[in-house]
Amino acid sequence: MTEVLRLHAHRAILGEGPTWRPRENAIYWIDLRAPAIFRYDCGSGAQQTLQVALGDRLGAMVFTTDGRMVVADRGGLHLVDGASGERRQLAHPDSAQALNCFNDAKCDGRGRLWSGSADTKDTDANGSLFVFDRQAHGRRIDSGFTCSNGPAFSPDGRRAYFTDSYAFEIWCYELDPASGEIGPRQSFAKVAPEDGYPDGMTVDAEGFLWNAHWDGWRVTRYDPDGRIDRVLKVPVPKPTSIAFGGPDMKRLYITSASLDMNPQQLAEAPWSGCLMACDLDVTGVLDHDFDLGAILDVSGGLVTP
To answer: 146 lies in a domain?
Structure first.
C-alpha cells in the first residue's frame, strides 16, 4: 500500500489547486473558502501565506509565463502581483450569472487557460467552460454544468479533460494544439456514486489520468481509454485535487477539504484539509503556465513578457 504523508498541519476549509514550482522546490496551494494562497517549501518544510488581495471566494490560481499569478474567482479572472499584493480584473465572461464562481483552472500546452464556472448554491446547471487565450480573451466552449472541475491535458496536448462533479462523469474534448480548435464533448469515464464525486485531476507521462474523488477516500488512475488502472486510498474522505512534482516528478501532491465535517468526522480523519503527498512509480507531467502575452500590470502599465 502506498504511504501517504501529511506535509503540513494547517487545515484548510477547502484546500485546492496544488501547483509545483521546480525552480523553487516548492508547492503552492489554495483555500477556496477562507481565501488564501499558500507556499510550502519542500526543503525546509516551512509554509507561508502570501500577502495578496483576494476576493470573498476563490476558485483557482495559476502562474503566468512571466512569473505572476492569475486567480479565478467569483469576479472572473484577476491578475495578482506577488510583490505588491494588488489584484486587477482581467476578464469576467460569466458576469450574467451572478451566483456563479469560477472553479478550478489549468493551462494547456500552448499556454491557454481553461476554467469552468460553478453554481455557488450547488443546485443549478448554469456553469460553463471557458478558454482564455493571450491577453485574457475568453470564449465559452461548453455549458450546462453545476460544479465545474478538473481541467487536465494529455501529454501530447491533443485531449482536454473536464468534469461536472455532480454528473459523476469525466469528459474529454479533442483539441488541435496549434489552432486551439476544440471538438465536441465526449464521455471518458463514469464514476460510481459510492466511489465519490470526480474532482481535480492531472496526467502522468504515460498519458494516464489521475482524478481525486471527493467523498470517496481515493484517487483513481485511468488509462487513456477510461478504464480504471489503479486506486490510491487516502486518509481523508474529501481529496480535492492533485499535482505531480518533486525532483523526479514522481511525487503526487494531494489537497483536501474539511468543509462540512463535524468534530467526530474530523477526529476520524484528522488530516482533512491538509496538504499531503505520496511517492509513486510513475512520472508526472509539469503543469503549464498561462501565456498572457502583453497585458496591463496591476498599476496600469503595459508589460510585455
So the answer is: yes
